[in-house]
Write a structure and sequence with these properties.
Length: about 350
């Protein structure tokens, strides 16, 4: 099994049986070797710097009804909000003053008539902070909207495909959503010149190891610049709220696999991972992740962006906890890299 890790590091590829064997392996020595090799590869490319991104959660309004998501449109218990342009710019100014040089704008999938507002907002941020990267995570839109956002100044777009298996995808989403359209959106984003990210929830209901292998092979073929992975965390007001939480250890194993496959990729150690394990962020970094995203959103709305139960948004998960984050990173031999971090891809 250690040989599989060494082959993956050398060749950046395994066959489907090799990927499944690594995912299923219960040998702690092999898993430790996998994480060690991933750290070595990440350190060779990025050194000991961990990129920080300032996360602004624009709105918890969503036109979709995904069965796992706490801000799904049919959840009447959610107190909805939509930040104003002024509020978003205040968040960005705070982040810029702290040293952030990438802003991540995230929201539920807003109504179609909000597209002009989003384009204008991106344009205003680009005009004010031209030395910063702008990453968007706004869901599925027509190609022309993606093009307008790119023209306005967006650099990156994160759109998790969630599952490359059509049957599994259909069990997580309402009938009006389709894997075909999700994948088409990813193609458009790449065609338009974005740095593109995709990924999955690890341990989502009905997900098998074979499903995850299918996801690995799709990501391998797609060659994204960013890979977003987090454990499934249930939200009690959703149809899937009674399913168990995903595995932090399997999530970290996937971080390592993808680091060995894509040495230059931007791989966040996600908030979901830190939500289910108090050591989640450092576990992710020690497994090969190289990005963290402290929350810049106004403190009074953070709890309302409740994609899942218990979402961490304070202390080192928040922009105002940046000193705490620095201390945490120092304990494992890493430090904050304030750069834009434009690495990415398979090269």
């Amino acid at each position: 099994m250690r040989e599989l890790v060494d082959i993956l590091r050398a060749e950046r590829h395994l066959d489907s049986g090799g990927y499944k064997a690594l995912l299923a392996c219960d040998d702690k020595g092999v898993v430790a070797h996998l994480h060690e090799q991933a750290r070595e590869v990440g350190d060779e490319v990025f050194g000991k710097g961990i990129f920080v991104r300032g996360l602004v959660e624009l709105a918890n309004v969503c036109r979709n009804d995904c069965l796992y998501c706490g801000i799904r449109k049919s959840n009447t218990a959610v107190e909805r909000y939509l930040l104003t342009t002024h509020q978003v710019l205040q968040c960005c100014q705070q982040g810029y003053d702290l040293g952030f040089r990438t802003f991540v704008l995230q929201s539920g999938e807003l109504p179609r008539d909000k597209a002009p507002w989003l384009v204008d907002l991106v344009g205003e941020i680009r005009q004010r902070w031209n030395d910063c990267a702008i990453t968007l995570s706004l869901g599925e839109w027509p190609r022309e909207v993606y093009a307008a956002l790119k023209q306005a100044g967006a650099d990156r777009y994160l759109l998790r495909h969630e599952s490359h298996n059509a049957e599994h995808y259909s069990r997580l989403h309402p009938a009006e959503m389709s894997l075909k359209n999700r994948l088409q959106c990813l193609v458009w984003l790449k065609e338009l010149g974005y740095q593109v990210g995709t990924g999955i929830m690890v341990g989502s209901p009905w997900q098998s190891l074979d499903n995850i292998v299918e996801d690995i092979e799709f990501i391998e073929q797609f060659e994204p610049e960013m890979i977003g992975l987090g454990p499934f965390v249930p939200q009690h007001e959703t149809p899937l709220g009674h399913y168990p939480t995903g595995s932090a250890h399997l999530t970290c194993r996937l971080y390592s696999i993808f680091r060995l496959m894509f040495p230059h990729a931007l791989i966040p150690s996600t908030t979901a991972l830190n939500t289910i394990d108090p050591q989640g962020r450092t576990m992710g970094i020690m497994a090969g992740a190289n990005v963290v995203m402290p929350n810049l959103s106004p403190s009074d709305v953070r709890a309302r962006y409740a994609l899942y139960d218990g979402k961490a948004s304070t202390n080192a998960e928040a922009a105002e906890g940046i000193a705490q984050l620095e201390t945490q990173l120092a304990t494992i031999g890493y430090h904050i890299d304030w750069g834009r971090g434009d690495h990415g891809g398979k090269c």
